[in-house]
Amino acid sequence: MKDGISRLIDRETTLQIEDLTHSGAGVGRVEGAVVFVPGALPGEEVRVRVRSFRRGIARAELLEIINPSGERRLPECPRVDGCGGCTLQHMDYQAQLAMKTRQVRETLKRIGKLEGVEVKPTRGMEHPWRYRNNGQFHLEAGEDPPAVRIGYYRPGSRELLEVDDCLLMPAPWREFLTIIKNELNTLWRVMASEGRGFPLYHLLLRESFHTRQTALVLVLSDWDEPRWREWIDGFLDRLPPGITLVAENLNPHPERAVLGGKTRVIHGLPRLRERIGDMEFQLSPVSFYQVNPEQTEVLYRQALEYAKPRDADLVFDLYCGTGTISLFLAREAGRVIGVESLREAVKDAGENARLNHIDNARFIHSDVAEYLERYLKSGQPAPSVVVLDPPRAGARPEVLARIAALRPERVVYVSCDPATLARDLRILTDSGFKVREVQPVDMFPQTSHTESVALIRIK
User: Fold this and answer.
1) DSSP 121
2) Residue 104, burial from CB neighbour count under 10 angstroms (0-12, 13-18, 19+)
3) Does 245 have pLDDT greater than 90?
4) What is the 8-class DSSP label of residue 158?
5) Cys-Cys crosslink for 333: which of 242, 249, 315, 444, Cβ 3.0 to 4.6 Å?
6) Residues assigned a catalytic role
7) pLDDT tens readout for residues 328-340
8) pTM value > 0.85
9) Could you say which DSSP state residue 380 is in?
């Protein structure tokens, strides 16, 4: 196989696309090897150029669609080929939803070895564009001529693709980015002429879809740099009127992660105010919050429906973030304990409870596994319901083990990765639970990502 496919490296060949990967690439076969083809759809015959072969997988460049799929659509974004974000933009939206349902079902079987789990049809959006409430943009300061570029990194690289608009972002951000870029160019010309390094590496925008308040977060390697302090003071007087909060984030190692550990608000409101249903939430500029407000309400109401808390129930909300799910649960439960490791989010959660006049929810700043261990040793009554919404990597084994030791009647697992969901559901199943059903929710239209809510009951 290896010799056969190796002969095709940098040569053209045709193949039939049979499926899609979880990242949205088409899957075909040639010379007995699996080939991933970004931009191709199942059922299509395509002409490709094989670019690499590693660990049994060939990767190819799409050159021509010989027989297009009936599900193919003309992408609306002119940067779709270079950006790598909207990997399904060329696919009919109803077909995207069907594909995501199928992938969740197949992942549960393949990774979790879970048979007979009902996977509901993915719940989508009526208008699947301009839905994101936050975005991260990277910056490069070029020296010849001195100019600042703002954009996204191309897939798998640090090569910047300059952007002035994104069809997943709110339309007013186009003007914000243009104004910010022009202002930064003025700063950089001065700094470059003085031989100074540019301290700004990333910027974040976050918008409340309820109030249309917008936060700008500037990620700096040195927020005390004299020229920067001089510039930012003047820029705050010239802010676009839609930006109501400006914060600085200090990150001495911006090449390792976008955000550093220290954030300070330097202008405007201390927080943004958002609404889900009839509940209001205050969000600090860097706290985690779901990126799609419309679908967030769909997701949380599904979690509430699965949890079915009663007046006498104690409910744990693990990885609770700013307390959004917790407060929905608290309206129907006897008591809710939310656990979150990010201190700023816990502070937001407490203020959100006060804002919505909820007094039966308590928020704990702690590592989730450590809190569960302490709770088990305390001898206090076990929760009737456990809700968890972990990061993409899923829950750690010790977290799942301690949930199993608590023996709650119901576990509701909110997941942004079908693979880690399947892995963790297998662990819970082996610990005496049964997965009843899974509801996918399309939080990220035009992309290959899927959010899911799973209902698990004690056997």
Assistant:
1) P
2) buried
3) yes
4) -
5) 315
6) 416
7) 999 999 999 999 9
8) yes
9) P
